[in-house]
Write a structure and sequence with these properties.
Layout: H1 13-19, H2 81-93, H3 99-122, H4 129-132, H5 135-139, H6 143-147, H7 161-182
Helix pairs in contact: 2-3, 3-7
Length: about 180
């Protein structure tokens, strides 16, 4: 059975504010930059109010602001491992209006990246940050002349780039050496 906008009863602002922490932060039109563009009187061309609901075969993460998933949602990358637990915590406990929600999602991404880098080392095909960052390509294309006097935005953080690339690689390599020696 399709979900139709006409059947949906929207809770009042007071109910939502009492139920969801941080709800209503953008109620004042002066705080929303898109107010002049928010027109609902234009025809959409759709033959439905909302499309038929996609079946939820595996439980999906959803914001605490929403009682149900949207009619269509992605299923290609289900949550897994430690990073999935961190992301689930972000969705289960914190509103999207809270910084903690987004910081936990970023932390989950970083955990996932670290896990995939470690997994790649143990599978015998580690990342190659030297070639992946384009450092070798820049070395042959006048690296000093192309950086100074050109107004490049990355000049301010260029000194820390080698550290950001080398530190994770060094940690992974040291971990692999320690594990190999213990075996």
């Amino acid at each position: 059975m399709p979900y139709r906008a006409a059947d949906h009863q929207r809770p009042s602002s007071e109910e939502l504010r009492a139920r969801i922490p941080g709800w209503g932060a953008d109620l004042d039109p002066a705080d929303r930059p898109s107010v002049p563009k928010e027109r609902t009187d234009l025809p959409t061309g759709a033959h439905w109010d909302i499309p038929e609901r996609q079946p939820e075969l595996v439980p999906r993460e959803r914001s605490i602001e929403h009682g149900m998933l949207p009619p269509v949602f992605g299923t290609t990358a289900p949550l897994h491992g430690v990073s999935g637990a961190v992301r689930r915590l972000a969705y289960d406990r914190y509103s999207e209006a809270r910084a903690a929600h987004w910081l936990l999602l970023v932390l989950g991404d970083r955990i996932d990246v670290a896990g995939s880098r470690v997994r790649a080392v143990f599978e015998g095909r580690p990342d190659n940050p030297v070639s992946e960052t384009g450092v070798l390509g820049e070395a042959g294309a006048h690296p000093v002349a192309s950086r100074f006097g050109r107004g490049r935005a990355d000049l301010k953080h260029a000194w820390i780039d080698p550290l950001l690339v080398a530190a994770p690689v060094a940690v992974v390599l040291l971990t692999a050496l320690v594990v190999r020696r213990r075996r």
